[in-house]
Write a structure and sequence with these properties.
Length: 436
Amino acid sequence: MGNLIAEAISMGWMAMAIVAGMIVYFQVTIGDPVAKKRAVFKTFIGLVSTFLLFIAIANYKQNFYGESRLLPVSLVMITVTTFIMALYYTNLSALLKIGGMMFFIAAFLSGYGNWLPQVEGGFPPVEEEKTWDSMTPEQLADEGEKIIFGGVGKNKEQGAIGKGQCPLCHAFHAGMLGERAPNLLGLVQRGDERIADPKYFKDDPTKRMYSVKEAFPGSGAAQTSQEYIAESHACPSCYVVEGYGVKGTNDKESPMPAIHKPPISLSLPELAAVDTWMYLREGLDAPSFEDLVASYEKFIPEADRPQQAKEGEGGGGTTLMADGSEPVDQILAKAQCVACHTIPGIPGAVGTIGPKLEEGTTAAQRIKAPDYKGTAKSATEYIMESIIDPSAYVVQPFPDNTMPKVFGQKLSAGALKKIVDYLSQVKVGQPPPPIK
């Protein structure tokens, strides 16, 4: 098709050049010296224009099917040539100007289209399931780090978070205090201490004083450190570390969700990968993949085991916590906002790590605060800013950098809008808005 268009343009311009040549010939033969000079000049202009046209057409034909972005150059050259010829060939001026304007518009549209990033179509790559059981411990550990932090080598990055959402509550390095949950450095060694605690009731978990006695009826209690880790993931309220329980429960209930259930839903192989990273990062030999999976099978009945994640879903940094299709209470729960904030009208939102969220009243007050350094001009803008960039204004006496700075990437635009809409209606001393 491109070659046909180019040939048509070539033939059209050759015909026009012949017509122009005939006009020049008749003017020269009249015998008027001035007319002769003009005719010679017009002939020169015609030859130059014809030469430029042939170059433009050659460029057009050469680059029509290629990846070069030089295609619009041909149209620009034709446009310029057409307007030049219109100045000297007055008999054809109107026709040439109309043609020149058409080529100018074509050049503009073609240039803009070629300026845009080019995307090559094609079928998406075939996704393959991970062969977890054939991975080396090091490969498993890398997958575990992706699940926890969103990528290999990101475990020391502030705000790095993966599918497992663990950094929302836990610290992982020495000197870092986990205000919402224990620091997991040394967890492997502490497992033996936990199951030796008299309150753990290793031999008879039905005597436990916690809100949940067993992961499921008849599962029993952990007998090894690895089984304790597995149980703490599958049944966080089976044993609550002192000082880290839900406020008002006297440390009998954990704020941590079971991570094999929604919204996190880690599969048993993914949980085994997470544990492998926990071992190897401390220089310890990890149990085999089969033994790790078996430790979780003890506390997660087969009916509750999530399907193994496909390639690309096992902890990439782009995994959304909520896509916006959920009601706002589920979005806040999936993002773990309920573990840190008290939010009127939201079940289970009784956290004290962050300020109480009554933004319909407090947002306007904070914008006017002398130490406010953000850019928000309204309550809704302030709420969105506080989610995406929580350090823009830090409510006292809460410390900075407590809230992760990843929710702009982890929540869809629809999910963020639902949160903003809800919180902007929560006002001090008034009933909370209904959950839609």
